[in-house]
Structures are given as C-alpha cells and as structure tokens.
Amino acid sequence: MSKTLLEMRGITKTFPGVKALDNVNLKVREGEIHALVGENGAGKSTLMKVLSGVYPAGSYEGEIHFDGEVRRFSTISDSEHLGIIIIHQELALVPLLSIAENIFLGNEVATNGIIDWKLAFRRTQELLNKVGLREPPGTLITDIGVGKQQLVEIAKALSKKVRLLILDEPTASLNEKDSDALLKLLVEFRAQGMTSIIISHKLNEIKKVADQITILRDGGTVETLDCHHEDISEDRIIKGMVGREMEDRYPAREPKIGETLLEVKNWNVFHQHHRDRQFLHNISFNVRAGEVVGIAGLMGAGRTETAMSIFGKSWGHKITGEVAMRGKPVDVSTIPKAIDAGLAYVTEDRKHLGLVLIDNIMHNTTLANLKGVSKAAVIDNHQETKVASGYRSRLRIRSHSIYQEAVNLSGGNQQKVVLSKWLFTDPQVLILDEPTRGIDVGAKFEIYTIINQLAAEGKGILMISSEMPELLGTCDRIYVMNEGRIVAELSKAEASQESIMRAIMRSGEKH
Amino acid sequence: MSTDTATKTTQPSVGEYLKKNIREYGLLVALVVIMIFFQVITNGVLFRPVNITNLVLQNSFIVIMALGMLLIIVAGHIDLSVGSIVAFIGAISAIMLVKWGVPAIIVVPACILVGALMGAAQGYWVAYQKIPSFIVTLAGMLVFRGMTYVVLGGRPVGPFPKDFQILSTGFVPDFLSITDPATSLIKNYFALVVVILLVGYAIYAGLRERSQNALHETENEPFAFFAGQMVIISAVAVFLGFQLSTYRGLPNVLVIMGLLIVLYTFVTTRTTIGRRIYAMGGNEKAAKLSGINTERLTFYTFVNMGALAALAGMIIAARLNSATPKAGVGFELDVIAACFIGGASASGGVGKITGAVIGAFIMGVMNNGMSIMGIGIDYQQLIKGLVLLAAVFFDVYNKNKG
Q1: CA nearest B190: which of B210, B204, B176, B169?
Q2: Which residue range or ranges hold the ABC transporter domain (chain A) (predicted)?
Q3: Residues of chain A where predicted confidence (pLDDT) is lower than 50
Q4: For site-directed labelling of A445, which of A85, A141, A241, B262 has its Cα 20 to 30 A away?
Q5: CA dihedral B3, B9, B14, B18 (to 10 degrees)
Q6: How is domain A257-342+427-511 classified at the CATH fold level?
Q7: Taking CB atoms and an 8 Å cutoff, what residues of chain B touch A353?
C-alpha cells in the first residue's frame, strides 16, 4: 500500500447559522484517483475550498496533513505552491486570450516583465501534447469547444508542478466522447504517479476510474469505499449518499387536488448562448389546482431553464411548444403576458434576479403589480402601504418596518419579500425555484407552511429543488429531469431518494 | 427578535430618519450656506433683484436638462449629447424663424418634437441594441455638433423675432397694478402675491399630507424636519419673490422651470413610470423579471431627455438672440455634475429631482458668485471640479459608514 499524500482530519467549517462541514475526514493515497461524491449541498465544494486555502487556516477547525506535514494555507497560492491544483466546474479561462496566454496567465514566462513568447509557445505545445490536445497554442479559447477548454485547464494545471489535481465536476458539461477522453487522461496520469481527486455526480464514470470513493452527506463523512477490495455497485453509492432518515421537518398537508391548471406540451428550447444547441427536449408536464409538483434533477439538468423559458421566454431562444392554463392555450411570449396568464416565477437567485436590493420592502412588494396600487398610473401611497404591511404580517417578514431596504434583510426574509411580490400578482400557478436555498431551518419551515397554505387556497405550485428530502417532504408528485429531458414522473408513493437518483443515473447512461 | 416587530409598522425615529436622509438635508443646508457666503463676500450683490433674475436665466436650462438627465442616470445610463442637441435645436429654430419666417407658435413644438426624435435615435441603440449609452451618446454628441455646423454653414444666425425672445427674456406681466410702478418700491405685485400664495399652499398641502399619512400609518418625516425645511424654503422663496417683485417680476423661464420641476417630482415620486425607472436602475434583471418592459422604458427616458434638451436649446438661443455652432459646448458636463452633486448614483437606481435641482443651483450660485468676485474661468472650473468630487465623496463616505 502506497503512502498517504493528503489527510484532512476533523474538518469543521461553520458559516453564520449553518454548519457546512462537520468533522469531515478525508484520506487520499499517493498515486490514486479518489472520488468525492454527495448530493448538492453535501459539502464537497466547501471541503475543497478549505483544502485550497480559499477559506484560510483559522476559519475552520481541524488539520490538513499534506506530504506528511501539517499545513496551514492562508491563500490559494500557498496550496498551489505545494502542488495542490483545483480545476473548478466553471472554467476560469479568459475567452479572448489564446491557449498559451491562458496557460501562463499570472505565471508568465518572462524576464523583467517582458514575455518570451517563443519559449511560452514551445512549453504550451509540450503541455498540449501531454493532454492530447491538437490545437495551435495561439488559438483563442472562445474558438474551441468546452471539452477542449477543459483540457486547456488541465494543461494549465500541469504547467505548475502539480502533486494533487482536483477536478470539480469535470465532465458535467462534456459529451460522452470528451468525457471518455478526459477519464482516459486521468488514468494515464495515474500511471505516471499523479494523484487526483474527482468530484462527480456521474457514478458510472466514477466506477470506471476511482480507486477509493468518499461519500459526504449533510456536511459529514459517511464512509470511504475501497473499489479494489469489493465490487461497489451504483446502488451502494446512492444509498450512502441519501441514506439519512426523513425527519419531521415538513408541515403536514392534506392535498385537495382539483382541475389541471398549467399544462405544458412538447416544450423545446435552444440554448441562450450556444444558439445551435438544443437544451430542452420535448418537455411535457402539468400542475393541478391544490397540488405541489416537484422537479428534481442535478445542476444543469435544465430545470431553471424550463421554468424561465415558460415564464415569458426569459431564457433561451427558438422556443416551441404549447402552454395552456385551465385547458385554454395561453400566450406566454413576454413576461407581462405570462403574469396576465396567471403565472409567477420566484427565482432561485433572489439577490440578482428577485429583488431591487437598494429599495425597500414596500417597493419590492408592489413591483410586479403596480397597477394594483395605482389609478391612472398614479400610485396611491396609502393603498401601497396597506398592501405591503398586509404581506409583511401575513408572511411574518421580520423587519423594522416596510421601509427597510431589502439588502438589510436575512435570506429567509428576503425570500418572503420575493414571495410577497408574486403573491400580490394573484397567480394561479407559482413556480418556486429553489425556494429555500441559503436560508436557515426555521425560515425553511415557514416557507413550507406558506407553500401549504397556497396549495390549500387552490393554487398550483411547481417547485424546483436540489434538496431531495425537501421535494419528498412537500410534493404530491415529482418530475425528474436530466440533461434537458423529463426522465421520470413519480407519484408520492413511488418517489424516494433512491428512485429519483436511479432515474437520473439510468437516463445518463443511456446517452 | 419577537413576532411583534413582524407585524407592527413603526415610524422611524428622528435619529434614524436623519441618518437615512442626511444627504438631502445636507444638500439644502449646503445651498443655503453657499448663498449666504457669496451674499456676504460680494457685499450683497448676489441677491440684488437684477442678479437674481440673471441667476435664474443663466441656470434655467441646466435645471431643465438636469430633470431629464436625472431620469437617465437613475435608469443606469448617461447622456453626453445634450450640449450638441442644444446647439442643433438652436440652429434649426433660427433657420425656421429667421430664414423661413415660420411663426414661433409652430417652431417651439416642432423643435421639441425634433429633440425627442434625436433622443429616440439614441435611445434605440441603447435600449434595443444594448450598446452602452456612453458610446451611443458620445457618437450623438459628435454627430449632432457636426449637423449644427452643416445647418448653420459655420456662421451664427439671428436675431430672433420678439415673440420667440420672450421665451427666455420675457416676464410675467403684473396683473395687479396696485401702485404706480414708477414710484413704488414694489414694481410687480403679482410676482409677490403668487410666491406668497404658493408658499401658503405648499405648507397647507404638506400638513394635509402628514395628517393623511398618520391616518393610514404611512411613513412621515419627523415634524422637526418638516418644519425646519418649510421655514427655510418659505423664507428663501418669499425673500426671492420680494426681490423679484422690486425688479420686473417673475421671468417666464422661472415659471416654465417651476412647472417642470413640479411635474417631474410628481412623476418620479408618485407614478408607476417613475417607480419602474428606479427599479430598473436598481436591478434591471429583477425589474425585467417582474414584468417591466425595460427596453421601452429606457427608450422613453432618452426621448424625454431629447425633448427637454430641445426646450433648453431654444431658451439658450432666445437668450443669446442668435444661434451659433458653438452653443451648449460642455453643458452636458454641468448637467451631469448637477445630478451627481444632487446625490444621484453613477450605478443607477438612486437620485431625486429635488437633489438634481439643488445641485444645479449650487453650481449656478457658485458660477455667478465667483464671476461677481472676479475669479477667472480657470479657477472657477478648478473649484467646481473639487466641489463635485467632495459631494460624491460625502456620499461614498456616508454609505461606507452607514
């Protein structure tokens, strides 16, 4: 058995109100490929940020041993200096610079500030040979595909003396062929003695290359599986990932389900930026009155994009398909039309897309329905005060007054302001995109209670969430999405974390 | 925090209110201090009736353009072309009036329409083609200036007919000839009466709104601030009204400017379109996702700016009594500076009409006061630049501290 290269012991990291990591242990042997798996929010990225020094020593508890010594990184460059290199999910390349310029960005081959381009290009060529990328070093990043960009990132990592290569979801945006090539490259590096950590949701890929698998759940280490000692099945991994007990975190509700409110048929959407790439394929679903319908899926499955493309075509282009409300086709081609049709979309990104942070609670509450507080385009201040105060007490928004700026509210209260805004438009169907992201447990319970009240009033709720327990705890029916398609529809009885994960994994392997 | 605080709407305390609104009160105090300073240092010349009239005439067009510029800045944009629009509108009004003999009653609305079209031409690129407004209006600034030279053939055109000149040099006649103007101190009673009536109405309306607000539990500013402001504004207004009435009364431009200030204050504070502009400037994506047609709104703020710049262009041309190709050079900077001194934020979403107006008058009083003192244009620019920087620093400092 080879020696241990990295050992993270008892890592605990708390953010205000949240324990993101709780006594996490990770042991990586030299020369292996170590997989790190877990649901969204299990703490994988936080753990890697602790390791790389994004969260400096002192901001967490526990010890990091690397190469036999205790290390305290206070910046990223400290960890890079030792050869710990992270390639993030969102690539950090400058699109309008060349491959060579990107590889040596911040680390230029220069004497006295003057770059030796000849040498830089020659070294780039050597690195590109190593990763098997056949592109001239002068090619601009924007001119090559995502798969090749990923290889450039790896070449960039190799340009520094790398001991431990960490890849965060390296194949998430790659197609089958590029993914295979990348995995093969990792295996090749292993043969040359390099150690790597791979974070991935694609369990079939992990099974192919990993020597050990560490499973994280809710900020803690569940177990580390050795792939050479036993044959690890995907179901075995999934069980580890989701194996928590359902707690009483969700208020009970007796569903009274009525007629179909929203019906979407054959919804096809092309990517907003990569305009010739179809992103959503034949999405069809419905939401009935009094029903809470969930959409489960991994990041990038197309859930938010589905919601936004329906809500006034605010995402994507070349959108085709039918949308009907109460059986009648409706026009949702612009946001005002979608609002008139009875739709409301509560965004996952409340700070950037949901609130005018510098404005107060009252103004944010009435923003989507100014007509409701005005006559002939003149706002009735008293009416507006009444409306805002009403929602403030109904949703229990904790603030000094309705004149408090949104920026000064806690996440949960901000979310309630966004909800107020959309409730005031009196929608028939509310689309809630990650409604409890980044808010504390108490506020979550309140949001679930509000969801239940709305359902009881006969509204249809479509809930997108990456937290599976949340979907299972609140939804009457769950659609599962993967890679731009709906791959399963599960009734409350059929739905479980295992069945959802299985639906995602199986569909992923088919392609 | 208990649940009580979640349901009770509390009125802000005096301290809180001051902290939140220090910028506005500070600005008003600054204007008064600057006025008193120059009044003293110029041995009373600043507030002589003739000079007050001049002050109004010299600054009216800056104030009028600042109204439109504030909306542009709040929307998150900038318009560098207004100086050139001023020149071009002056030029075509001169051509129409002087060379073609078109009556003023047609020329004025026609020019405002042309100004609106010039704004629209720029607004289209900013709103629908998403080209940064800085670039679009920089291009507009050059294009419109060039067009002015072409139209005028490089030479000034004038003088204007009398009925056009009164736009800027005329006064509201005295409808109440109580005493013989030749012997009495007060030469235009109408001006004084109007000012006193307006002040009276403002106080009455302010008090009525406060009681309404109290009834509906809407936010009220603390009474001390309301009273303080009312006393300062009333005193200054009555004093200026008295001074004006001892000269020739209310300048026409003052009336136009006053009406526009009231209109734009109302639009920005009480109407849905005003609210939408602030929301768009504060967070364009959130505004768009709330169903606001941000493109159209942006487009119209530029149309509005063009129309106001056209009005300003005619006032300037009428005042100078000739249209010159160099008219309005650098005005865009004074207008933009007025907005920023008035507390508008360069990143959008923040700013008030009253702030921009006071900002314009701070600049105006300083210009005028320094000219009376005989300070050269070189030092004037230097001092104005430092005042702008200081005002914005005050904003930033407050924000970081708060």
Answers
A1: B176
A2: 6-243, 264-508
A3: 245-246
A4: A241
A5: 100
A6: Rossmann fold (3.40.50)
A7: 285-286, 289
Q: Are B40 and B246 in contact (CB under 8 A)?
A: no
Phi then psi dihedrals of residue B60, to 5 deg? -55, -45
A272 touches chain B (CB under 8 A): no
The ranges assigned to domains in chain A are: 4-242, 257-342+427-511, 351-426
Could you check whether A4-242 and A257-342+427-511 share the same CATH topology?
A: yes
Token digits of residue A370: 């100014």
Q: Is residue B219 part of a domain?
A: no
B278 contacts in A (CB within 8 Å)?
A: 356, 359, 363
Evaluate if residue B7 carries a pLDDT over 50.
Answer: no
Distances (CA, A) of B98 to A87, B94, B103, B146: 72, 5, 10, 21
Specify the pTM. Answer: 0.80
Quick: pLDDT tens for A217-236: 888 888 898 888 878 887 78
Q: What are phi and psi of A147, to 5 degrees?
A: -60, -45
How many structural domains compose chain B? 1
State whether B10 and A401 contact (CB < 8 Å).
Answer: yes
Residue B352 lies in a domain: yes
Task: Note the pLDDT of residue B5.
Answer: 40
pLDDT for B6: 39
List, for residues A297-315, the tens digit of each pLDDT value: 887 789 999 999 999 999 9
Decide if B348 is inside a domain: yes
**Interface ipTM > 0.90:** no
Residue B379 belongs to some domain of the structure: yes
CB contact under 8 A, B289 and A401: no
Give just the sign of the alpha carbon dihedral A334, A336, A337, A343: positive
Query: In the CATH scheme, what architecture does the domain A4-242 have?
Result: 3-Layer(aba) Sandwich (3.40)
Taking the Cβ of residue A275 and every Cβ of chain B, the question of whether any pair is shorter than 8 Å is answered with no
B290 touches chain A (CB under 8 A): yes
